[in-house]
Amino acid sequence: MIQTTQAAVSRYTNGSRIPRPAVMARIQAVTGGRVTPNDFIQFERAEVNAPREEAA
Predict the structure, then answer these.
(1) pLDDT at residue number 15
(2) I want to staple 2 with a disulfide (CB 3.0 to 4.6 A). Which of 18, 25, 26, 31 is the partner?
């Protein structure tokens, strides 16, 4: 379906590896959009919402 190994899918699932853009596109297509490239980007919400420190 997405032309990759089960081991690679396992790494994508546990977050130890991020798929290449072409693989992300295939995953999105196969899942009908339920899984998107954004699902592979890990970040802390606190970092996004934290106020910026201004340079002195």
Answers:
(1) 86
(2) 26
